[in-house]
Amino acid sequence: xxxxxxxxxxxxxxxxxxxxxxxxxxxxxxxxxxxxxxxxxxxxxxxxxxxxxxxxxxxxxxxxxxxxxxxxxxxxxxxxxxxxxxxxxxxxxxxxxxxxxxxxxxxxxxxxxxxxxxxxxxxxxxxxxxxxxxxxxxxxxxxxxxxxxxxxxxxxxxxxxxxxxxxxxxxxxxxxxxxxxxxxxxxxxxxxxxxxxxxxxxxxxxxxxxxxxxxxxxxxxxxxxxxxxxxxxxxxxxxxxxxxxxxxxxxxxxxxxxxxxxxxxxxxxxxxxxxxxxxxxxxxxxxxxxxxxxxxxxxxxxxxxxxxxxxxxxxxxxxxxxxxxxxxxxxxxxxxxxxxxxxxxxxxxxxxxxxxxxxxxxxxxxxxxxxxxxxxxxxxxxxxxxxxxxxxxxxxxxxxxxxxxxxxxxxxxxxxxxxxxxxxxxxx
Length: 428
Hints:
Blueprint: E1 3-8, H1 16-22, E2 29-32, E3 41-45, E4 48-52, E5 65-68, E6 73-74, H2 76-88, E7 97-99, E8 103-104, H3 107-120, H4 132-140, H5 153-174, H6 182-190, H7 193-196, E9 200-201, H8 203-212, E10 217-220, H9 245-249, E11 260-266, E12 269-271, H10 284-292, E13 305-307, E14 309-310, H11 311-321, E15 325-329, E16 339-348, E17 351-353, H12 360-364, E18 367-374, H13 391-404, E19 407-412, E20 420-422
Parallel strand pairs: 1-10, 1-11, 2-5, 2-10, 5-7, 6-8, 7-9, 11-15, 14-16, 15-19
Antiparallel strand pairs: 3-4, 12-13, 16-17, 16-18, 19-20
Helix pairs in contact: 3-4, 5-6
């Protein structure tokens, strides 16, 4: 089964990097197929912690080929800053390949993202301000800048001029900002052209050839199901396809090449930014989960909103993505709780919903129907088999598995690279 997609089940930050790292030694290729530097993966290797924002986490595994696919939007300054930081720590980054069709985040995208978000006031979405949304908007409007445009200065200049003809009117007349000149944007982008040129290729063809050769290719999604532009809590979503379907469109690999869909889900729930969150906690339990789980954004440093595990969301994600296996992360964070509530359904104005309501207004007003499970006090960070877990921890996992609609194949019991329990091989 050479084609494996890894997607987040909730609102992101579930620990997708751990799953990718778990497959590392048997993986030949790791592909980032959506998003940009608006999300991050934290990977712990020994005593070393790595925070990645734009690069696929597989770049940390020796011998693995890393690919940034066409579905990604790239901030070139961030790309080379990340590469430089990894090189300084002795990581080999020479295997990175970048799609010629990936779109580039420019100075005006970042500026527009920040001023537009402030302009929205109380209706703000909670973006990271890194230019992701405006870049995807230009992509859809067919006014975007692609990586391949860096190698034709005339084309690049024409595209920047066309974009700024409109955007400077917005910046000056609506947002009271200075106009951005064509030269400053073009000169900035061209300064990266020769550095990125050796990495650029037809990554769709490259990956297709790799799959034909029997290589194991992991498609690593940024953000998560509930932030997907089509299937998430719109409009409080990201601007790309964060579900398994995005692996095909964002990489150029046909869906029939995707053999296993692995969903990553925390043993509780978190999200950042605005939008509905039925199980959100505002009490000492929320403080407990946030502090124990160190729930602060890898990219932004913002405190994450925290809540109990939401079974309807997991069922929804399992259906939307076609998930074959779940990786349950951060089970250890729940240690010490006497009781662990789980959302099994929602109440909306007296009506019970066992699944995620299709109407956004209903979901916004949903309150969780909770079922309590006994907790445990034993340290589980050294557990390496399911039987090593306390019985109440085993019962909790089995209950989540039954509610989720697919098997829980891997359980994370700590931040270390080897702090996992493997119940079913993800390549089996």
